[in-house]
Design brief:
Helix content is 56%, strand content 11%. It is of the alpha+beta class. The chain is globular. The protein is built from 40 helices and 14 strands. The longest helix has 21 residues. Among the domains are: 58 residues; 81 residues, Phosphorylase Kinase, domain 1, CATH 3.30.200.20; 170 residues, Transferase(Phosphotransferase) domain 1 (Transferase(Phosphotransferase), domain 1), CATH 1.10.510.10; 119 residues, ABC-type transport auxiliary lipoprotein component (Rossmann fold); 97 residues, Serine Threonine Protein Phosphatase 5, Tetratricopeptide repeat (Alpha Horseshoe).
Length: 887
């Protein structure tokens, strides 16, 4: 039911947006929005056509044509407390009044729903009520009043006086760079605090920003209408405001931090250029392009604006800054007034370097602002405060000793105490600090429990929040942990040397690493060794970080939720010791990947590159995340960077080979796997991968030799499965079944092996065994999909298993979603062809093959289940084209 509801919501969103486009552009918009999902395209095209014939019934519902009575009138007292003074504004679904709160004795604003819109408030507003920040309109409470029109919802909120940014931009006098910079920074500060609190705005635009004059002739920027944008109002409000909407919203996807950052980019563009980045009605251009740089339209602004704004306006969410704080940091960098020729040369070098190198060079040219960090006293019971005095002085000393590329002054806790400064606001006003470390602490038994933040005092945004628990035997790790939190929050380049592992723990730790890295399956041997090392050295984060990775690998193999929870506990303990260490960052990134928080994983891995620019593991993991996000150019770039860092390291070639393999480029995959075996001749998995790629290329003799080499070193389910697949392609299903049975005996938790066993059993006429194998495969794949719904490949297998089990409806639904999630994945395309062929949908199978690589087409020409498809003249034409121009 939820899937159907989500699908219907997406369909209606795309239909509504399509109807806003000029008739001549609707077809192009629909095709772009639906991407490769033909079924979705046909459904939406039919709905748009119907809507046109019905005279835009959807965009103009009957309720929109009614003349509404006003819910409240001047002089009326509602909820026995709020006296309506006057009406001050009206929107599509609500009215704003000035009112007087008799209880608090102050003027307020009230926003009420019009009669007929009996639920004004979206669920998001409940979270928005909890956000408190100077740059967010203060919403106090949700109320319901009984009126002659029935129940009417209304909000009590801060009364703002001034003008909207939209109105200011229409004024004859253009904003200066200083004015624009002040507005941009305050806007970023408010939005960052909302995102930190888990609230997405959904309809950020210049009309929702108020510019309120301050007593010192400054301006306070206030974001309004949090949580209200999710409600669909009249036709011009369905799904948000088009010219501020991120491309993914036009495709019917959910609003997110990334879509808010796109809207932020539109507003920043307006601040510089004085106009919107795209012309009204240019949906197709907005879906695929970046606009011209804003400084090409208006002069008087520094170069940093173009870079910041255009990154926010990237069509792909993963190419945008992952956090608003990153946008704010880029805006706050101080530009060099005159750029010498040396800088031009440095920029040329930066363009060729790694992301870490580029970051360092940009910081040389546009250095970050100076930092005055106040270490505030512990906030907590007296016992914790006494315990924490020396700890905070240690933190102060450690931060002061960090090597860095920016000027930092540390205001020590003794100074803050002497001046009676206990809050972040006092640190800003009394000490003129720019940042503060604020920590609360209390004791629970013998343990000290801490919670804290590193705060940017200019914006009152928490750059980083953290918590930890410290037993008496590891309390000395607290200063290291707090210094690490500061280092990470302020993006300091180099931390002081990490504490070495004690000699007693080293042997267990190194043996654990051996098992963890050996074959990806020896986590059960690694776990007790890391636990022993952690007991022997309670102050080092290394055993705990590796223990987290071992549990993550166990979770991936077993799908046992308890393993994931154990990984999370181990990682929390590691972070409480040293949150900014390489091992902890890598473990946190792997955990984020596992639970589909890819943007957070990228943040962790990029931090590793800042701390250690030559870390190959970080480059490989960044490549893997971009692979998951289906951003091929960036994935390949990261793989190549890893190879350049150490051309003799086998894993870089292996990972790149797997990347090519799953995109159907078997020739390139085989080449990379061959390089892996040359550099690591004892790695049995490398021979297994090489055998699979050679088999798909039809080079069976070479493939068999590679697989036999793998099995000779170590018998694994993967190698047995690959031998079975090769026999199946040779029409030797009886032999294939025996290999598959041995594979599932070794590893009964892999749906791929069970699915292959089902295919060969079916072709042999063993229908009972085939059905049992398919059902087992379906159960395993469905379980994996529950853990991570974004796995397009897994979803494609679910579709093919459903087709073989006779569930045609689910097969259609799952394969359409799989193609949308992973449109460039050759293995997904392959499964789609098999699914449609099993369903008897030859036309759909041929349609999907229009996106297939030449090598995938050649492999399918040998597929034993596609005999009839291979004889189709359309398939033969596609195959002939690969012989003419394909590789």
């Amino acid at each position: 039911m939820e899937k159907n509801a989500a699908h219907d919501e997406r369909v209606m969103s795309i239909v509504a947006m399509a109807l806003r486009q000029p008739p001549s552009e609707r077809e192009a918009y629909i095709r772009l929005s639906c991407e490769s999902d033909r079924q979705l395209y046909e459904e939406i095209s039919e709905a748009v056509d119907w809507e046109g014939r019905m005279g835009s019934f959807l965009l103009h519902p009957m309720i929109a044509f009614q003349e509404f009575a006003r819910p409240f009138e001047a002089g009326q007292v509602i909820a026995e407390r709020f006296e309506i003074v006057r009406e001050i504004g009206e929107g599509g679904m609500g009215i704003v009044y000035e009112a007087f709160d008799r209880k608090r004795k102050q003027r307020i604003a009230i926003k009420s729903a019009k009669p007929g819109f009996h639920r004004l408030l979206s669920p998001e507003l409940e979270g928005a009520l909890k956000v408190r920040h100077p740059n967010i309109c203060l919403v106090n409470q949700i109320h319901t009043a009984q009126t002659e029109h029935g129940e009417v919802d209304f909000l009590t909120m801060e009364l703002l006086e001034g003008e909207t940014l939209s109105a200011r931009l229409k004024a004859p006098a253009k904003l200066t760079e200083n004015e624009a910079h002040e507005i941009a920074c305050q806007l970023c500060a408010g939005l960052a605090e909302a995102h930190r609190s888990g609230v997405v705005h959904r309809d950020l635009k210049s009309a929702n920003l108020f510019l309120c004059p301050t007593e010192d002739r400054g301006v306070r920027v206030v974001i309004t209408d949090f949580g209200l944008a999710g409600v669909q109002a009249q036709s011009d409000e369905i799904g948000g405001t088009p010219q501020y909407m991120a491309p993914e919203l036009w495709r019917g996807e959910k609003a997110s931090k990334a879509s808010d950052i796109y809207s932020l980019g539109v507003i920043l563009y307006e601040l510089v250029a004085g106009r919107l980045p795209f012309a009204e009605g240019s949906a197709v251009e907005q879906l695929t392009n970046r606009p011209p740089a804003p400084r090409t339209i208006a002069d008087g602004f520094g170069a940093r604006w173009d870079r910041v704004v255009l990154e926010c306006l990237s069509p792909s969410p993963c190419d945008r800054p992952q956090e608003v704080t990153a946008v704010l940091a880029a805006l706050e960098k101080k530009p060099v007034r005159k750029v010498p020729l040396l800088v031009v040369a440095l920029l040329a070098v930066a363009a060729l370097g790694t992301p870490a190198v580029r970051t360092r060079l940009f910081d040389l040219i546009w250095p970050p602002p100076n930092v005055r960090l106040a270490i505030l006293p512990f906030d907590g019971p007296e016992a914790a405060a006494v315990l924490g005095g020396g700890v905070l002085q240690d933190v102060s000393d450690r931060v002061g000793q960090l090597r860095r590329g920016r000027s930092i002054v540390v205001i020590e806790p003794s100074e803050t105490l002497k001046r009676n400064v206990h809050s972040s606001q006092q640190a800003k006003e009394v000490l003129h600090a720019t940042h503060a470390l604020q920590v609360t602490a209390h004791q629970e038994g013998a343990d000290l429990v801490t919670k804290g933040q590193v705060i940017n005092l200019n914006t009152m945004v928490a750059l980083r929040s953290f918590s930890g628990r410290y037993a008496p035997d590891n309390l000395t790790a607290l200063p290291v942990a707090l210094a690490g939190e500061v280092s990470r929050a302020l993006n300091l380049r180099v931390m002081s040397s990490a504490r070495p592992l004690s000699p007693d723990a080293t042997q267990s730790y190194e043996r654990g690493l051996y098992f963890l890295r050996r074959d990806g399956q020896s986590f059960d041997e690694a776990i007790p060794l890391f636990e022993q090392a952690a007991r022997l050295d309670s102050l080092s984060p290394l055993p705990l970080a590796q223990l987290a990775e071992a549990y993550i690998k166990k979770f991936k193999a077993s799908k046992e939720r308890s393993s994931l929870e154990a990984a999370q506990r181990s990682l929390r303990d590691a972070e409480s010791l040293s949150p900014d260490s390489i091992a902890v960052l890598l473990a946190d990134g792997l955990l984020r990947e596992t639970i589909s928080q890819y943007e957070k994983a990228l943040e962790d891995y990029r931090r590793v590159q800042v701390l250690e620019p030559r870390n190959i593991n970080a480059s490989l993991r960044i490549a893997g995340v971009y692979d998951e996000l289906d951003v091929p150019d960036k994935a390949i770039e990261a793989y190549r960077q890893a190879i350049e860092l150490d051309p003799d390291y086998y894993e870089s070639y292996e990972d790149l080979g797997e990347y090519y393999y799953y995109r159907g480029n078997y020739t390139e995959a085989a080449e990379q796997f061959q390089k892996t075996t040359e550099r690591a001749p004892g790695m049995f998995d490398a021979y297994t991968n090489l055998g699979a790629a050679l088999s798909d290329l039809g080079r069976d003799a070479e493939a068999e030799q590679a697989l036999l080499a793998s099995l000779k070193i170590h018998e694994t389910a993967r190698a047995l499965n690959s031998m079975g697949a090769m026999r199946a392609y040779q029409k030797r299903d009886a032999e294939a079944v025996e290999y598959y049975r041995r594979a599932v005996a070794l590893d009964s938790g892999d749906y791929y092996y069970w699915g292959n066993l089902g295919d060969s059993s079916r072709r042999l006429g063993h229908l009972g065994e085939a059905q049992a194998a398919y059902q087992k495969a379906m159960n395993l794949a469905s379980l994996e999909l529950q853990e991570n719904p974004r796995l397009g490949l897994t979803r494609s297998f679910v579709a093919s298993f459903a087709a073989r089990l006779g569930d045609a409806k689910r097969a259609y639904t799952e394969i359409a979603q799989a193609l949308q999630l992973s449109p460039g994945d050759a293995k997904v395309i392959r499964r789609a062809v098999l699914t449609y062929d099993a369903l008897g949908q030859r036309d759909e199978a041929i349609q999907v093959l229009s996106n297939a690589t030449p090598q995938l087409l050649r492999e399918l020409d040998r597929q034993p289940d596609l005999v009839a498809l291979r004889e189709d003249s359309r398939f033969q034409r596609l195959l002939a084209n690969t012989s003419i121009g394909g590789k």
